[in-house]
Amino acid sequence: ATSSSKRYNITLLPGDGIGPEVVSVAKNVLTLAGSQQGIEFEFREMPVGGAALDLVGVPLPDETLSVAKQSDAILLGAIGGYKWDNNEKHLKPETGLLQLRAGLGVFANLRPATVLPQLVDSSTLKKEVAEGVDLMVVRELTGGIYFGQPRGFGKNEKGEEIGFNTEVYATYEIDRIARVAFETARKRRGKLCSVDKANVLEASMLWRKRVTMMASHYPDVELTHMYVDNAAMQLIRDPKQFDTIVTNNIFGDILSDEASMLTGSIGMLPSACLGESGPGLFEPIHGSAPDIAGQDKANPLATVLSVAMLLRYGLQEENAARTIENAVLETLNKGFRTGDIFSTGKKLLGCKEIGEEVMKSVGSQE
Amino acid sequence: ATSSSKRYNITLLPGDGIGPEVVSVAKNVLTLAGSQQGIEFEFREMPVGGAALDLVGVPLPDETLSVAKQSDAILLGAIGGYKWDNNEKHLKPETGLLQLRAGLGVFANLRPATVLPQLVDSSTLKKEVAEGVDLMVVRELTGGIYFGQPRGFGKNEKGEEIGFNTEVYATYEIDRIARVAFETARKRRGKLCSVDKANVLEASMLWRKRVTMMASHYPDVELTHMYVDNAAMQLIRDPKQFDTIVTNNIFGDILSDEASMLTGSIGMLPSACLGESGPGLFEPIHGSAPDIAGQDKANPLATVLSVAMLLRYGLQEENAARTIENAVLETLNKGFRTGDIFSTGKKLLGCKEIGEEVMKSVGSQE
Ligand SMILES: CC(C)[C@H](C(=O)O)[C@@H](O)C(=O)O
Ligand SMILES: CC(C)[C@H](C(=O)O)[C@@H](O)C(=O)O
C-alpha cells in the first residue's frame, strides 16, 4: 500500500446458517478489489442473531452494536434458524436484526431486483415478462408498524384478549425516505412509484401527501402512486413498468420479497440499509438456509454483490464496486453456477469454488 | 313455478364503471339457472359507491344498507372511478364499500384463484408453474388495521404531524375466521396455510396462537404457518403448494390480489363475503374499469361466477351453482372470449354476447 492508501474499518456479522460461509467469500473479494484501488480494510467480526444468543444469551450484544457503530460499514450474512424459532420475542434472532437496524438508524433499505440475462430462465415468469426487469425497492426500515407504539397484548371492552400494533409515520420519517427514493430514482431511469394504501389508512394518506410535496424538489423524476394491492398485482403482470418503488416498512417487506422472487434467483440479490450519517448495513436478501449450512453449497454471490453495494453506497468507492459487479457477471458468463441457479450445460461449483472464480476475475481486471 | 318453488330476495348493487353491465348479465344468468331448479328471485337494485355519491351525496345510503340487510344475498358489481378519486375520505366510493362490509358483518372474504386449463396461457407465469393452480384465500374482512382504533392524524412529542392506524385483533375475531378457513380447507384438499408476521407483530402472535388452538378441532386439516413476506415469494415460486390460505385483512388484500394476478385472468375471478348470519355479499374481484365502461367490452364472467358463489355459499343452492359454473366452462370450451382473455384463434365477443352464450349453455343443461 502506498502512503496515499485509504483504510476502512469493516464490521463483519456472519450470523447464522450459511452466513459465515458467504461472508468469508465476500470478505476475500472485498479485500482483493480494494487492494487494487489502494484501499485497505480492517475487519472485526462480531456475533449477532442465533450465534450471539448461543454465545452470550442476547441476539444483539451491546458490544456488537458499539463496534458496528464505530466502523465505516457493516457486512451481515444471515440470521435465524430452527433452533431459536420458538424463543420468546426478545430472544429471537430477528429481534437482534431489528435492534441493529434501529440502533444504527438505517432507515432506508435499498433492494434491487434485477433479472440478469444469464439467469432469465431461473424465473418462474415467462421469458418475455422477466427479461430486462431492473427495479429498486426503497423500503422504510426503522418506522411504521415494526416499531410503532403502543403495541402488545391486552383486553377489549368485553374482556377478550387482544394483540395490537401501531402503524405510524411522522413527516420527518416520510420526508427522509422520500428524499432517498427520489435521489435513487434520479440516478436510475427517473421514475418513482410510491406505494401505499391511502384509500384506507391515515398513515398512508400522510405518506402520499408528503411524498407528493417532496416531488417539487425533483422535477426530473416522474412520480406516480399505486395502492399496495395493485402493486402486488402489477409486479407480476408487468414488472418492467417499474424503475424505483418507495414504500413503508411492512409493505416494503412484502413487495421487496415478491420482487426478488420474480427474478428467480434470490441467491443473487444484495441489499443496503442506509442512515442519515453513520455506517450502512449491507446484506444478501436471502435467509440463513440452515438446511445447507456448512456444506459449501451456498451461493455467495448475493453477499459478494452486497459488498459492491457497501463500496458504492457505504464508502463511495465506485471503481471497486464496478470491478466486483463485473467479476460476478464474468463468472456467470463463463458458465459457473451454484446449485440454486444451476441449469444443464453449466458448471456446478461450491461456495468456495465460485468465490475463487470471482477472485480470478477481479484479479484479471487489474 | 310450482307451489314448491322457493323465492329469494336479492339486492343488486351495480355500482360504478362496468358494474352495471356485468351485473345485468349475471342477473339474467341467475334468473335462468334458478328457474330450472324451481327457484324464483325478486331483485331490488340500490345505489352504492360513486353512483350513490352522485345520487344522494354519500357512498352508502342508509336505505341501501337496510335493503341489503333484509335480503337473502347481495350481488355487487364494482365501485370507484377517477371522478371521485380526490374526494375526502368519508366521500370516497371505497368508504362506502368498507361501511357495507362492516354494516353487514361479513368478516370472511373467500377469494379463489384458479387457473383454468382453457386460460393457462393468460398467466405471466410459465405454463408448468401456472397450470393446475387452484387455491382459496380466506381473508379477514371486518377487523385489523382497516377498522382498528385509534386512528387518525396528530402530533408527536416533537410537534411533528403524524398519521396512525391500529392493527388489532381480538380472540373472537381470529377464532371465527379460523373456523371458516378450516371448514373451507376441509371441503377442499385439507391443507390450510395461515399467513402472518408473528416474528415481529403482537397482533400476529395472537393470530398464530389462536389459529393453532383451533386446529385441534380439525384433525383432518393439515395446518402450516408462513410469514407474509415468504408467502408473497412462495406464491410466485410454486403456487401449487397452496390449497387454502387464511390471513388478516391487510395481508389478505395484498396476497389475494397477488394470487389473482398469477392466474392472468382476473376478469374471471369471483369472491364471497360471508358473516355469521345474515346475507352474504358477492362480487367479482376486478375493479370498475372506468376506461371501458359502457362500451360492452367488459368480461362479465367473474360476476357470473360470483352468482354461482352466491348460490352455493349464500343460498345453499349447489345445483344451480354447478349449472352456472359448467356453463362458463362450456362457453370457454367453445372458444368464446372477451377482450381481456382473448388469444388468436378464439372468438371475440362483447359483454352481452358472451352472456348470451352462457345463457344458452345454462339452458342446454336443463
Ligand atoms: C427477519 C425479519 C424481521 C425481517 C423483516 O421483516 O424486516 C426480514 O423479513 C427482512 O425483510 O429483512
Ligand atoms: C377498495 C378497497 C378499500 C378494497 C380493500 O382494500 O379491501 C379492495 O382493494 C378490495 O380488496 O376489495
From TrEMBL, chains A, B:
Pfam families: Iso_dh. One of its GO terms (biological process) is L-leucine biosynthetic process. The keyword Lyase does not apply. Its cofactor is Mg(2+); Mn(2+). Binds 1 Mg(2+) or Mn(2+) ion per subunit. It comes from the Eukaryota. Pathway: Amino-acid biosynthesis; L-leucine biosynthesis; L-leucine from 3-methyl-2-oxobutanoate: step 3/4. GO terms for molecular function: 3-isopropylmalate dehydrogenase activity; magnesium ion binding; NAD binding. Its EC number is 1.1.1.85. It catalyses: (2R,3S)-3-isopropylmalate + NAD(+) = 4-methyl-2-oxopentanoate + CO2 + NADH. InterPro entries: IsoCit/isopropylmalate_DH_CS, IsoPropMal-DH-like_dom, Isopropylmalate_DH. Homodimer. Catalyzes the oxidation of 3-carboxy-2-hydroxy-4-methylpentanoate (3-isopropylmalate) to 3-carboxy-4-methyl-2-oxopentanoate. The product decarboxylates to 4-methyl-2 oxopentanoate. Belongs to the isocitrate and isopropylmalate dehydrogenases family. This is 3-isopropylmalate dehydrogenase. It comes from Aquilegia coerulea (Rocky mountain columbine). The lineage of its organism: Eukaryota, Viridiplantae, Streptophyta, Embryophyta, Tracheophyta.
